[in-house]
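Structure request: Restriction modification enzyme subunit S2B, Mycoplasmopsis citelli.
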Amino acid sequence: MKYGEGNTIPKKRGVYPVYGSNGIVSFTERWNNENGIIVGHIGTVGNVVWAEGKHFVTYNGTIIKGISNIVLDKYLYYCLVLKKLEKLKKGGQPFLSISDIENTEIFIPSLKFQEKTSIFFSNFDNLISFHQRKYLKLEQIKKSLLKKMLPNDYKNTPSIRFRGFSESWKQRKLKEVIDITKGEQLNKEKMFHYGLYPVINGGTSPTGYFNKYNQEANTITIAQGGAAGYVDFQQKRFWASSHCYIIYLKNNEKISNKFLFYVLKNKEYIIRQKAYGATIMSVDKESILTLFLSLPIFNEQEKLGKFFFQLDNLITLHQRE
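Returned structure:
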């Protein structure tokens, strides 16, 4: 074992990744390690990283190599990940010494068993990385398509459209097409950790669960407090609590609910900018109703809503994987 080099990140840029205590921080022209384990001993103390190929390790990282014919580096890496080395940190300025790591006990089986175990978990890591890359790529694609397929307030046609649609989009005031109401207060002692119906309040996830519901499925919600301005689409029946806004279409308005959700989600950053408060942020419904939206004909709304909904399902699939 040995500490990396230098207290600062190398200034000369190159092709070799620079590792600190928490992964890659830059790239440089030279390398001081190849295919090895790096453990953060200053900064993100106890963080264990496997660095592939040639790379440079700063002083914030400890370079670890297994003793030949006793333990394989990749097997040792997985053992150290399980040991949760961050628990060994000590002092006001967290620090993990080489002796702390050397005194950590691990089980060492035969080299053949180590190799099989390492290959198994490496394949598993590769599968996880594949789905993470897919997830991030799809998120980027979705973000780009939302901008191009949903025109802003100053345009009446998007830059990308489905074939067969050519009509101009009509601009409407949000207050002309929707009503906003608040949910009903539900005290925490009445909620469950698991249950039939999620309780939607002012956060980005359910506050808890309840055995009753007060809203139907396929409803748009906006957080009134807490994560003020967060726009969500509830696919199942739920209980809307007191910090939850529920979006209803006004009578005779023929608008696709899923399309409207993506329009509002695309404007979420604007809604969140309207939030106010010193400790707990809040957004009032009047500031939401002042927004404008552009509407195509209903068939195009339906197609856009369905398209982005399917894209979200694909993103969720890779996120879960």
